[in-house]
Amino acid sequence: MTFRIIYGNINLFFPGCGDINFYAQKGEEILTMEKKWINEFVAKEKATHIAFFGGAIASRFDYSILEETLKQYGQAKVAKWDGLGLRVAFLPPVKMKQDSRFPGWNVKPEKWFYEQIAAGEIEEKSLWLGNAEKGGEVDLFDPRCKPNHNKGKQMWEGDENFLGPIIEGLRNGGKIAHYEYGPQSSRFGVSVIEAEQHVYPDPALANLLGFNPEQVIMSEGVVQGSYLSQAYPGLPRFKDGQTNTLVWFRERLEGGRYRLYGGDSDWGGRAYVSYDSVGCRWRYISYLPLVVLSPWKLRA
């Protein structure tokens, strides 16, 4: 016989011996530790938002979606993501307009990006940092700094524990093209089509992250990349504008024939945004995956 004690999202199973009150007390202790972890996590995100947006704007954000998401996934899973080099962030429902003034937003996407939105070439919803209809969103993102170009041989730091083996397996299996300039585990030389049709939906990636295979994994948007590379001074990505490679963004042009890219320090760093065909494989362009943890997104 075993005892099962339920505390919120925590299911505790104890052998059917000893004092049940003792086990109940242990359950209370675990629950208290979880609550403390959540409170500390939320407090850090609030501090980040105050520094970036200013106290007046940050005071309007509702952090309940972050609290519920942390409860849903739990401290152990978040720690596992940390071990893979990933981080959880709450992206509030803020419209990042060209004339927006935020204390921490020192470098905005260049004027061309906003002109394309004004002309209807890029969807207007691309201006929103987090989900505007749901009070924001909780995302799992990659805080690594993109590497400097080295004739295509450059690699993302620590990728041997994250995307490297997955990409190498796809190349070896013939699902994405062989890379002639560097290791087959490189994120570089992967087209948008290959990333969206093979890398992101790969069951091995979902399994590594502990997700349902139908969980949507995508590239970051322009304003999301701008925010994530400037809001967290303690993370490697804070130096993203200083490296001369590029990353694909998820914004589309001409019905999806093109995707935006940006970030090259030789062309304006964090501000630089341009575009190219979804079928191109360049040795100086790679990508940053993003997972929307809440509101939950599943593939149709």
Task: Please outline what is shown here.
This protein is α+β, with helices and mostly antiparallel strands and 300 residues long.
Topology:
Elements lengths: L1 E6 L2 E6 L4 H34 L1 H4 L5 H20 L3 E5 L19 H8 L18 E5 L21 H10 L19 H8 L3 H7 L7 E3 L2 H7 L17 E8 L4 E5 L10 E5 L7 E3 L1 E6 L6
Parallel strand pairs: 6-9
Antiparallel strand pairs: 1-2, 3-4, 4-10, 5-10, 6-7, 7-8
Helix pairs in contact: 1-3
What does this structure look like?
With 300 residues, the chain is an alpha+beta fold. It has one domain. Helix content is 33%, strand content 17%. The protein is built from eight helices and ten strands. The chain has a four-stranded antiparallel β-sheet with strand order 3-4-10-5. A four-stranded mixed β-sheet has the order 8-7-6-9, with no helix packed on it. Strands 1-2 form a two-stranded antiparallel sheet. Helix 1 (20-53) crosses helix 3. The longest helix has 34 residues, at 20-53. The radius of gyration is 21 Å and the shape is globular. The N and C termini lie far apart (42 Å). Mean pLDDT is 92; it is low at 2-8.
